[in-house]
Amino acid sequence: MTKTLLILPGDGIGPEVMAEVRKVIDWFNARGQDFEVSEDLVGGCAYDKHGTPLHDDTMARAQEVDAVLLGAVGGPKYDALDFSVKPERGLLRLRKEMDLYANLRPAQCFDALADFSSLKKDVVAGLDIMIIRELTSGVYFGEPRGIINEGNERVGINTQRYTESEIERVARSGFEMARKRSNKLCSMEKANVMESGVLWREVVQKIGDTAYPDVELSHMYADAGAMQLTRWPKQFDVIVTDNLFGDLLSDLAAMLTGSLGMLPSASLGAPMANGRPKALYEPVHGSAPDIAGQGKANPIACILSFAMALRYSFDMGAEADRLEAAINTVLAQGLRTADLIGEEGRAPVSTSEMGDAIVAALDA
Ligand code: NAI
Ligand code: MG
């Protein structure tokens, strides 16, 4: 079956790192895979051409393809634009209209980088956990919201709001993920002080009891979870949590492993007619205007995002393993882009040298 990909390189280093992903896709296509790639604009570059950060035709194409791969959007050139046409609005529109409610953020420590973490080596070496953050509801969207006048001062208001069905669908994503890994799921909320947390815990427990009795389910208050994630992160496998706590906990977990240039993500929605989930894959980092155009960007986050596409959109787990192994090989050989060099002062490789080395390691 043909696998259709829409590639949206975006702004800044987005096109630079995506060029390296194209090399990886070409490598797979040269060995019998049939990825059919189309490319389009998102973010500032789309605004420059169309006056909008995401053209309707691009949005329609994103709804049709098996997976969207996005680089990054934004840059100083667009900072003064009206909010309605800001580059990030393009990304938000994709997430919203594709209804991508489950945000997957792995925190994985490559052996060769265990020394690079700010934590002790034995805490992070071999770490491989997955945080699933609810992405389309919760306090970032709940109504009422706003800044109102009350007596002689102003009040800022946001509302944490979750329906049972919103909790249920992301909980199912968590249980399914746990089944693909080591059958362990930890759900995090603050049921001790929040009503939405009480409902969250109840619904997750019910889904677990009725549909996933084989998965070992635990619950933890999110603040205790933050503590445990830094103390001994390897106690976890899959964590499922809401939008706000997931935002914080996934950033925290990500930094256990090293650089922003190493972090991939996936955002998944409901299954399409062909059984594949609606899906958008992107590195966690932004457009890095400070290094754009200089060949310094680390392409690994974007390449690992493609590895996630192999795993979660195309059931190509063995190929995803092979790609991750190639990245580990290259790091073990000592190749480092500038962001992965600490005090030791070795010479960095360029974006394209890193991509070439990874493709070469795929051959080995
Ligand atoms: P950023 O992630 O672009 O950069 C933060 C720092 O990390 C910079 O020093 C940058 O050089 C470095 N960095 C990031 N990715 C790297 C990579 N692959 N290799 C090596 N170094 C890397 O975040 P920042 O500076 O806050 O935002 C810059 C622009 O990106 C803004 O316009 C922002 O709105 C946008 N942005 C877009 C995102 C997206 O498209 N999903 C996410 C975050 C920010
Ligand atoms: Mg964040």
Concise summary:
The chain is an alpha/beta fold. The protein has helices at residues 14-30, 44-50, 56-64, 87-97, 121-124, 164-180, 195-211, 222-231, 243-255, 300-312, 317-332, 351-363, and strands at 3-10, 35-39, 67-72, 102-108, 128-134, 146-150, 153-157, 184-189, 216-221, 238-241, 264-271, 277-283.
Describe the structure.
With 364 residues, the chain is an alpha/beta fold. It folds into two domains: 1-110 and 259-364, Isopropylmalate Dehydrogenase (3-Layer(aba) Sandwich); 128-255, Isopropylmalate Dehydrogenase (3-Layer(aba) Sandwich). 40% of the residues lie in helices and 20% in strands. It contains twelve helices and twelve strands. The chain has helices spanning 14-30, 44-50, 56-64, 87-97, 121-124, 164-180, 195-211, 222-231, 243-255, 300-312, 317-332, 351-363; strands spanning 3-10, 35-39, 67-72, 102-108, 128-134, 146-150, 153-157, 184-189, 216-221, 238-241, 264-271, 277-283. The strands form two sheets. The protein has a ten-stranded mixed sheet with strand order 2-1-3-12-11-4-5-10-8-9, sandwiched between helices. Strands 6-7 form a two-stranded antiparallel ribbon. Helix 7 (195-211) links the parallel strand 8 (184-189) and strand 9. The protein is globular and about 60 Å long. The chain starts with a strand and ends with a helix. 46% of the residues are buried. The mean pLDDT is 95. The structure holds 1,4-dihydronicotinamide adenine dinucleotide and magnesium ion. Magnesium ion binds next to helix 9. Magnesium ion (MG) is lined by residues 247, 251.
